[in-house]
Specification:
35% of the residues lie in helices and 20% in strands. The chain has 13 helices and 13 strands. Bound molecules: aspartic acid.
């Protein structure tokens, strides 16, 4: 099955269906609307989209543009789901995952579980550009980054260290033993006096933040896709992953085909949210293939969400334990964001040329999310 647009355009231009099919099999979107400068991302990427758009307008490469945009979020200590300031693993160490894909050269690069580097997306790009490998992990990824002149730094901020200590303390009973039950930290009460004393300058708002993060371990990521008017597309995904994870846990974000996939002939897709569920359906690749076979970006992300739900027999009670989000950008500039639960993160960021980006609503699959605690 070929994209409806191809067949419609071909009829307008008086081509036979077989000629259209031949054209379509060569380049699926060759006859679709002319591409334009457009950048989309997860909702935390308003600033990333704006920066990437500035660069696209100035004629920079699409991958350089989206990586420069995402670097702003990686370096922002206030975003606790990406880069510097991201929430750490259960041992208090920040471990980052990222990957990039460059449409025009069909190349990609990735780093998993890298420590001590604020901008993992840049290292993923270096892996793509400077090696014959696709993915470097852990210690090797860090050594590679250092060889290229990157400085190893402490990625914990005062805020993320406090949240980690509150979480850690919440897991222990009075005698100091671990009492983790596998839930979401229902045992969290109040930070102890000792903890209070260790952070004398912390105000109630910051403490409230730390308690909330301890009770509700977060996920969070940035995915950013950029298309230019020449019809070139690239993408990047970067994350600190699931907070309080087991050291070494790798999510979907650095996995080409799950956290990100770009095909210069079709478009790109990416994901944020519960990575394990995305890996099980190879979400980004699934979405791009859906678009290749004629689905609109909206239909393509909804289909991916349905596959996630099907892995749980569409049981809302089990699905309520997590959320997941997809983003898709097609070569003709059409795009969509989609989210599993209508009560969750319902927006995604878009910039099609304005100095400031805007948020647009995602399509959603499920309503009435059951309470899990
Ligand atoms: N997808 C990321 C991961 O599983 C986290 C997230 O986006 O929330 O590591």
């Amino acid at each position: 099955m070929y994209p409806r647009e191809i067949l419609m355009v071909s009829r307008q231009h008086g081509l036979s269906t077989s000629a259209a099919l031949a054209a379509a099999s060569a380049v699926p979107f060759a006859n679709a609307a002319a591409p334009r400068n457009i950048v989309i991302s997860s909702a935390n990427g308003l600033i990333a989209c704006a920066r990437a758009m500035q660069m696209l307008k100035a004629g920079h490469d699409t991958l350089d543009a989206v990586v420069a945009g995402v670097n702003l979020v990686e370096l922002d200590p206030e975003d606790d789901s990406v880069g510097y300031g991201g929430l750490p693993n259960e041992e208090g160490v920040v471990e980052l995952d990222a990957c990039v894909m460059h449409g025009p050269t069909r190349r990609c690069g990735s780093v998993a579980s890298i420590r001590g580097i604020k901008t993992p997306s840049k290292i993923a790009k270096l892996v793509m550009e400077q090696t014959h490998h696709v993915m470097l992990a852990g210690e090797g990824a860090l050594r590679f980054a250092k060889a290229w002149g990157y400085k190893e730094e402490d990625l914990l901020t005062e805020k993320s260290r406090l949240a980690w200590l509150v979480w850690k303390q919440s897991l222990r009973d009075k005698s100091g033993h671990n009492n983790w039950t596998g839930g979401t930290g229902a045992s969290v009460k109040k930070p102890s006096v000792a903890l209070r004393e260790a952070f004398p300058d912390v105000d109630e708002a910051m403490l409230g933040y730390a308690l909330d993060r301890a009770m509700n371990p977060i996920t969070g990521t940035i995915n950013c896709l950029g298309l230019n008017a020449k019809g070139e597309i690239s993408g990047v995904t970067s994350t600190s992953g699931l907070s309080w994870k087991i050291p070494g846990r790798v999510g979907d974000s650095p996995i080409i085909g799950a956290g990100l996939f770009v095909d210069q002939e079709v478009g790109g897709a990416g994901s944020t949210g519960r990575g394990e569920e995305n890996i099980r359906i190879a979400g980004a690749h699934t979405i791009v293939e859906n678009m290749r076979h004629g689905m609109t970006p909206k239909e393509a992300v909804l289909d991916a969400l349905k596959r996630v739900a099907r892995n749980y027999d569409n049981d809302p009670v089990r699905l309520a334990a997590f959320d997941i989000h997809f983003y898709a950008l097609r070569m003709d500039g059409e795009y969509a964001g989609g989210t599993l639960w209508s009560s969750g993160k319902k927006l995604f960021a878009v910039n099609d040329g304005a100095p400031q980006s805007r948020l647009e609503p995602c399509v959603t699959l499920l309503d009435n999310r059951p309470k899990t605690n």
